[in-house]
Amino acid sequence: MDLVLSVADYYFFTPYIYPATWPEDDIFRQTISLLIVTNIGAYILYFVCATLSYYFVYDHSLMKHPQFLKNQVSREIKYTIQALPWMSIPTVALFLLELRGYSKLYDDVGEFPSGWFQLVVSVVSFLFFTDMLIYWIHRGLHHRLVYKRIHKPHHIWKIPTPFASHAFHPVDGFMQGLPYHIYPFIFPLHKVVYLALYVLVNIWTISIHDGDFRVPQILMPFINGSAHHTDHHIFFDCNYGQYFTLWDRIGGSFKTPSSFEGKGPLSYVKKVMEEKGNSHADKDCKNEKLLNGEFMKTE
């Protein structure tokens, strides 16, 4: 995060916001700056990616599902807008620790003998490490002692849209994002890679709420996509994973997505629409016969 903050200081905060006498490395100034940068970045990422996904990926016929709520999209957006600033407070505390040098983030690939190999391995380990922790945190949030108070608000959206991706209770949102911040305090990670992964995992969070249930055949057994996560919203006690199906399989909570079996919400909507279409067709046919009959009698 120091890379982002240094750019923000150079182009914005130092020349236009803070007095010249306030040092850039002052902890209070860094805290305020991080709060501003984190919130602005989160809103931009959320609105840009969720909006693009909603208009170009999301299948709007899902909105005809009986479990899709009235004014749901506006409610998802409103909930997110209210929650993000509160999520940012503990997040900024962790960013501040990174900024003050307590993490294992580095900015020179040459710092390690196997530099580029180390970098590639760190990306893979980051994904598997965070997926494991998110699985157990997410499953823990479904425990009856905490579910109603913390995680239930996210399950209001049975048929989610991309805008539901960040519509969490603040504690819930922070807890599920915590593994991303824990990793660089335990394992070495390049600063640019960390920033890129942080952006990508937020985009992934949007993608598993986008209603696009297609997955390449070869990846179906491994990837936890939108089809899996939509079933999690509907059935509650399955598919807790973030990227992969691994921990759901280990933990016994894996469920083959109903969409893969032709029984998902989109299939249900299509079936209902076809039945309505057939019903209207039958009604029109009967009306036509009646009119023809009346015409014959009149003749």
From TrEMBL:
Keyword Transmembrane attached: yes
One Gene Ontology cellular component: endoplasmic reticulum membrane
GO BP terms, alphabetized: cholesterol biosynthetic process via lathosterol; negative regulation of ferroptosis
Keyword annotations: Membrane, Transmembrane, Transmembrane helix
InterPro entries noted in UniProt: Fatty_acid_hydroxylase (IPR006694), Sterol_Desaturase_Related (IPR050307)
Transmembrane regions listed in the UniProt entry: 32-58, 79-97, 117-137
Main location: membrane
Domain Fatty acid hydroxylase, chain residue ranges per copy: 124-252
Cell compartment(s), UniProt: Membrane
GO molecular function: delta7-sterol 5(6)-desaturase activity; iron ion binding
Protein name from the UniProt record: Sterol-C5-desaturase
Organism of origin: Otolemur garnettii (Small-eared galago)
